[in-house]
Amino acid sequence: MKKRLMTGFTPTGKLHLGHFVGNLENLLKLKSEYDSYLLLADTHALTTLKDNPAIIKQHTQDVLLDLLSVGLSETEVTYYVESEIPEIYEMSSFFSMYVSHNRALRNPTIKDEIKMKGLGEQFSLGFINYPMFQAADILCVKGEIVPVGIDQEAHLEQSREIAREFNRLAGKDILPEPKALIGRVGKLIGTDGNPKMSKSLGNTIYLSATEEEVEKKVMSMYTDPTRLKATDPGHVEGNPVFIYLDAFAPAQEREQIGKYKELYKLGQVGDVEVKKYLIKILNDFLAPIRKRREEYNNPELLKKIMKQGSEKVQTETRLVLSELKQVLGMNY
Ligand code: ATP
Ligand code: MG
After folding, report:
1. Which residues pair with 6 in a beta bridge?
2. Are 47 and 66 in the same domain?
3. What is the CA(250)–ligand 2 centre distance, in A?
4. Residue owning the nearest CA to atom 25 of ligand 1
5. What is the pLDDT of residues 54-68, one digit of tens each?
6. Whether the Cβ atoms of residue 133 and residue 44 lie closer than 8 Å to each other
7. CB distance 269 to 263 below 8 Å
8. Which ligand is nearest to the CA of 154?
9. Residue 10 CA to ligand 1 centre (angstroms)
10. Ligand 1 center to 150 CA (angstroms)
11. Closest-lying ligand to the alpha carbon of 205?
12. Is residue 48's pLDDT more than 90?
């Protein structure tokens, strides 16, 4: 029997280049080796979109379309929507009883996101409960391997603790301890130089960007703030232009990229020339994704894919929930 792979996306906006190197690439590699489940975590999106909930439905469709467009066909992976499976909420309520308030607040990703998203003191209880909810997202399909970006590692640790706790209560292994599989680039830098490209920060290049949008985004990108003229020696490290070239150029471009890096460090090539080269690389990378998007861009088809996958997952999740309730003696 194939092992279970599970991962999820919060529909707070469209998917971007960071998602590609953070986890889509691993999904494409592993989708047939594993029994693969992909979650559209619409309830999670309320952590940042609670005042504009109507937009979440559109984002959920957009994210599904992004995933299908990169080559994750519904015939190879199962898609499910969080809010279509109320058993996830039941499970997360049980899980939250087994995590102390202190432990929840100690989560380093929660701390980072409060800072990064400027949430101040105004974050919701649901935001703190996010990792317990995520544990239910994963364990409701008994996910064993979870391809994610580096920011999710702390949440996965929480899921493992919860699985261990329930296995201890059950006196046997009823839940897997899900392992994170971090992508080739665990955290892709944003176009503004922020360490994380994030849909919540608007420093993205979307997988659905048109050629013109890519051009505009790249031309206005942050590069090396210490370099005032093209003849000043420049920095390649930490410079998003070179980071994106390394991440998205095909192997045959390596030599050219090496040359540009040397020239840039010597102050012998301008930002504009390297940016133009990056625009070409990114547009070539996005071309097949754009093509597949046209085939899937049909709201009725997207709806059907969500419905069918969610029904399949709900059947399984009911069984997992009843196992957990049995452990808790809630089988009246
Ligand atoms: P939000 O800010 O709303 O949480 P996000 O951009 O972090 O949005 P998610 O849907 O939370 O997107 O993340 C989906 C997956 O993509 C996760 O596994 C996450 O780790 C990964 N990911 C997100 N941004 C990046 C990035 N910049 N680099 C690498 N991986 C990323
Ligand atoms: Mg996130």
Report:
1. 37
2. yes
3. 27
4. 18
5. 999 999 999 999 999
6. yes
7. yes
8. 1
9. 8
10. 9
11. 1
12. no
Q: Which amino acid is at 172?
A: K
Q: Which atom of ligand 1 is nearest to the CA of 63?
A: 10
What pLDDT, on a 0 to 100 scale, did the predictor assign at position 321?
A: 98
Atom of ligand 1 nearest to the CA of 12: 3
- For the chain, the distance separating the N- and C-terminal CA atoms, rounded to the nearest angstrom, is 33
Looking at the fold, whether 218 and 234 belong to one and the same domain comes out as yes
Q: How far is CA 67 from the centre of its chain?
A: 11
Same-domain pairing of 36 and 93:
yes
Q: Which residue in 164, 155, 177, 133 sits closest to 4, CA to CA?
A: 177
What residues does ligand 1 touch, defined as CB less than 6 Å away? Answer: 9-10, 12, 18-19, 21-23, 48, 148-149, 151-152, 185, 187-188, 196-200
Measured in Å, residue 274 CA sits from the centre of ligand 2 at 30
Residues 288 and 309 in one domain: no
**Structural domain includes residue 79:** yes
- The total domain count for the chain is 2
pLDDT in tens, 72-103: 999 999 999 999 999 999 999 999 999 999 99
Minimum-distance ligand 1 atom for the alpha carbon of 147 = 18
Question: What pLDDT score does 68 carry?
Answer: 98
Question: In a mutational test of the pocket of ligand 1, which residue from 5, 6, 7, 10 has the highest number of ligand atoms less than 8 Å from its CB?
Answer: 10
The answer on 145 and 45 residing in a single domain is yes
SS3 115: helix
Amino acid identity at 264: Y
Say whether pTM exceeds 0.70.
yes
What confidence score (pLDDT) does residue 139 get?
Answer: 98
User: Residue 11's CB: how many other CB atoms inside 10 A?
Assistant: 27
